[in-house]
Structure formats: C-alpha cells, structure tokens
C-alpha cells in the first residue's frame, strides 16, 4: 500500500495487558470510530503492514484493540510508535465545508494581501475549535480554524486563504 492511498488515523501507544492488546491514540472525531474499519495498516516511514481488527474497547484514557496475529504482550509492545492508517477509499465523503485533517497538512497558507504565512504543519483540537499550526519563514503561527479567519480552503490549488496578518 502506498502512502498516498492511506490516511493516518492514530498511532499505537504501547501494549495493553498481557494477551496482545495494544493501547491506541486515535486522531478521529469520535475515538471509537477507528473500530469501524476491518483492516488497519500499521507502519512507519512508508513501510506498511495490514492487520485485521478483531476487537476493541474504550478505556478511560485511551482505546484498546486486539489485532489478528498479535497474541502476546511482547508482540504488542513491538508495535509501539507505529502509525495506524486506513485506505482513503474506505473513508466516507467529507461533508460540505468539512475536511480531513490529513488533507489540510502541507497546504500553503496565504492571507488576503497575498502574503505567504507558511504551510500547515499539523492541527490542534482545543475543544472550542480546531487550530491550524502554520510554520513559515517568520516562525510558527496558530490560526483558529473558524470562518472568521479561514476564508477559503482550496484543496485543488493546495492552499488556504486566511484573514490573518504577518504581524499577528
């Protein structure tokens, strides 16, 4: 599976218990929605391996999952730090005005004056709203992902138009 065919949805935090379960950090809107996908691709640095999802549980501070072929703690612990991805073709269509975070990362951010602010490095979830973490020539900026500041997301053009000054 190629990197561009996959969407990273979280990562393995380590082993959970002694029977091969793994502790998961999910970067999804609803933590347990990762359980909706029958096959998870685990990997790092472009090297991916499929694992069939067998069972999952929501824990107070994380998710726990049982993957086929991972039957003991040492095997589960060896997966620590692996990214979890699913094929893009299995994701539901994003609604109007909605975007997968994965699609926003790497986009150029430009303000109304045509000044380049940098590129989206990642996004943060704050509870009130998501925040674009933009890294550029003049350092890092945190831009709230709300209509007031994010005017247009132009995926096809690879850029985001914002109402944000260079001096903010």
From TrEMBL:
Keywords: Chaperone, Cytoplasm, Ribosome biogenesis, rRNA processing. Residues 101-164 form the Ribosome maturation factor RimM PRC barrel domain. SUPFAM superfamilies: PRC-barrel domain, Translation proteins. GO terms for molecular function: ribosome binding. One of its GO terms (cellular component) is cytoplasm. Residues 9-89 form the RimM N-terminal domain. GO terms for biological process: ribosomal small subunit biogenesis; rRNA processing. Pfam families: PRC_RimM (PF24986), RimM (PF01782). It is found in: Cytoplasm. Its main location: cytoplasm. InterPro entries: PRC_barrel-like_sf (IPR011033), PRC_RimM (IPR056792), RimM (IPR011961), RimM_N (IPR002676), RimM_N_sf (IPR036976), Transl_B-barrel_sf (IPR009000). Binds ribosomal protein uS19. An accessory protein needed during the final step in the assembly of 30S ribosomal subunit, possibly for assembly of the head region. Essential for efficient processing of 16S rRNA. May be needed both before and after RbfA during the maturation of 16S rRNA. It has affinity for free ribosomal 30S subunits but not for 70S ribosomes. The PRC barrel domain binds ribosomal protein uS19. NCBIfam families: 16S_RimM. HAMAP family: Ribosome_mat_RimM. Belongs to the RimM family. PANTHER family: RIBOSOME MATURATION FACTOR RIMM (PTHR33692:SF1). This is Ribosome maturation factor RimM. It comes from Chromobacterium sinusclupearum. The gene is rimM.
